[in-house]
Structure prediction request, 206 residues.
Amino acid sequence: MSASPTDMLSQFVHWVGFSPIEYVATVLGLANVALIVRRSIWNYPFGLAMVALYGWVFLGERLYSDALLQIFFFVVQIYGWWNWQRSRAEAGEVAVRRLAPRAWHAWLLGCLVATALWGAMMHALTDAHFPWWDGGIAMLSVAAQILQSRRYLESWLLWIMVDLLAIPLFAVKGLLPTTGLYVIFLALSVAGFFQWRSAARARAAA
Prediction:
């Protein structure tokens, strides 16, 4: 007996991993990162809406580290909005800053330690899928978001690491729109690094 059109549509929707919430969050994420690359303060309304929706998506997929991460993102994006607004008021633009080498190494070490501890906790206390993999993405994202809210160039290097880890994880979980989003995020993160670096050099020269 052949499948009905309704059954065929249902199977196709399941195969592509269609979720209206995920697709809306994907579009908001693209707008958010594209505006961050341009150092536009208007990235924040898009970012706040995106993380609210992704919190729901990741909770449903039992990616608890990523789900909890969205709560953190929401709070830090409010701080970032204030910080960027203050910089623009003082300097006439969102001024890019750079970390000293010792501080950069300390952030990287902190990410490694936090990943080990968080992954172990998720493994022991929850039924999380890929607790250390997911936890690594979460801890790197925490550091990246904090540094980006404070306008540090090195935040883009951490986002590149996040993207390289997130793309295969979300593909394994069948979150196809989100996988595609992070592929684009990777390209935008590379572009953002070079664009922010040019802005930092121009400001230093001036």
